[in-house]
Design brief:
Length: 453
């Protein structure tokens, strides 16, 4: 199955969904014409914040008492990727049309103060670009061929102090997905299964030199039609010893309802991967603890993100613990607090049948929860019956929390509050943040990205 077709059926479904859900898109944009506003200018938040509103990208420095918000894009559709390791640059994708499904996207970076935006490549991006974990280097793929005869390339560029771009390498992208290794020196790529060829993980240098290959399955029986095709959503543990991923089928529609989640020990290549569960193939729903001891993931089938999604934890041996109280709730978006003893933040609300109403949130009363290292759980944020909280972003010391509180399906405000012993009242920081509910209300990609100082 060609690399460029692995999302084919899924994208068709997404486009159909967007047409149905946002048929009144022009009316919605007109109704949301009011720009974002810094509500509280007195509180000092030591963070750089990127967010979207009315399809455009905005930046704000939480330490700036003036509360000035800088608009970065004024046309197209902006999709946030994330901050560089040093927080000097924000990576984003800009689509020429009014959505991120049916129009091509292009890789851009913008300086943290908003003074300089640079288009990284004139060619449309093929997959989501990724920062190096160690340096201001980014990697992305482009297709220099056609849809019928694709020729995908992996491009690695260095972002220098003033936004100059230096090409580091250009190699053939013969893989289904890639991930930076924690050292920033090598990449782990996923080679799809073919007739007489198994799914394989391969370790390569940035220049494409092979270092190791790890077959993770037997060759598929292609004559049966449907088979496990490739590992995607690769998440390498911080110590570089293991990788978690989703195993997609060679059918986009089948993969959309849930795929196997596996963990592979890179230090013991002779052992088979451990299957942890089944879930939707969203890398944002896989999260390694900073010490690599645990993997948090969201388990549950059915493409709808408002029901049947449960938080689970896997230890180094692959032993899985279910921490969700059951199908009565829906869990998403696990994020670890960086400081030991490594508490886990995640969103939790009452499971809700999927029903889109632009004036209502998708999961009423959803809040941010914290699971401490000892296993104790407590609700950190609590709104009203008609609100839902998303995108927990903890400060490095685990004392402050930024999060998005929705009051409508595609509208909300950024709040700040303390965590644990430092808990205090919730303060609205920025209002009129907007975005898309994503594929069946997964709220991905995120509307907000935070770099704590």
């Amino acid at each position: 199955m060609p690399v460029n077709r692995k999302w084919g059926k899924l994208i068709s479904l997404v486009v159909l969904l967007v047409v149905l859900v946002t048929a009144n898109g022009e009316a919605k944009v007109a109704a949301q014409s009011q720009g974002p506003e810094r509500v509280n200018k007195e509180i000092n938040v030591p963070a750089k914040i990127a967010f979207t509103s009315n399809q455009h990208l905005f930046l704000v420095d939480g330490r700036d008492a003036s509360g000035k918000i800088k608009q970065i894009t004024k046309d197209g559709y902006a999709e946030i990727v994330g901050w560089s390791p040093d927080g000097k640059w924000l990576l984003f994708v800009k689509h020429k049309g009014n959505d991120n499904y049916s129009t091509p996207g292009y890789v851009w970076i913008v300086s943290a103060d908003g003074s300089k935006a640079v288009q990284v490549d004139e060619r449309a991006v093929y997959e989501r670009p990724k920062w190096s974990p160690k340096a201001n280097e980014l990697a992305y793929t482009v297709n220099i061929g056609s849809n019928e005869e694709p020729r995908p390339l992996l491009i690695v560029k260095d972002v220098q102090d003033y936004g100059e771009l230096a090409l580091q390498s250009t190699t053939k992208a013969d893989f289904a997905d890639f991930a930076w290794m924690p050292d920033g020196e090598n990449m782990l790529v996923s080679l799809p299964a073919e007739k007489n060829k198994p799914m394989t993980l391969a370790l390569r240098t940035l220049a494409g030199k092979p270092l190791a290959a790890y077959p993770i399955a037997e060759p598929p029986k292609v004559e049966e039609g449907i088979y496990l095709w490739a590992a995607t959503g690769l998440k390498v543990s911080p110590d570089g010893k293991a990788v978690a991923y989703f195993v997609r089928y060679n059918s986009g529609s089948l993969s959309a309802d849930g795929v196997p989640i596996q963990r592979f020990d890179l230090t013991q290549p002779g052992k088979k991967p451990i299957e942890l569960g089944t879930g939707l193939a969203y890398p944002d729903w896989l999260a390694w603890a900073p010490n690599s001891e645990q993997l948090a993931f969201i388990d549950g089938t059915d493409r709808i993100a408002t029901t049947n999604k449960q938080l689970k934890l896997a230890d180094r041996a692959g032993k899985v613990k279910t921490v969700s109280p059951g199908p009565i709730v829906v869990d998403t978006y696990p994020v670890w607090i960086p400081k030991a003893p490594y508490s886990l933040l995640f969103t939790r609300g009452l499971a809700t049948p999927y029903s889109y109403d632009p004036k209502k949130v998708m999961v009423p009363e959803q809040g941010i929860w914290r699971r401490s290292a000892d296993g104790a759980e407590q609700q950190v944020t609590k709104g009203e019956a008609n609100t839902a909280d998303y995108y927990p972003a903890s400060s490095p010391d685990g004392k402050q929390l930024l999060f998005l509180r929705l009051d409508q399906a595609e509208h909300g405000s950024l709040f700040v509050q303390g965590i644990g012993e430092d808990a205090d009242k919730q303060i609205e920081l920025i209002k009129d943040i907007t975005g898309d509910i994503g594929y069946y209300a997964n709220y991905l990609p995120p509307w907000v990205s935070v770099y704590w100082e």
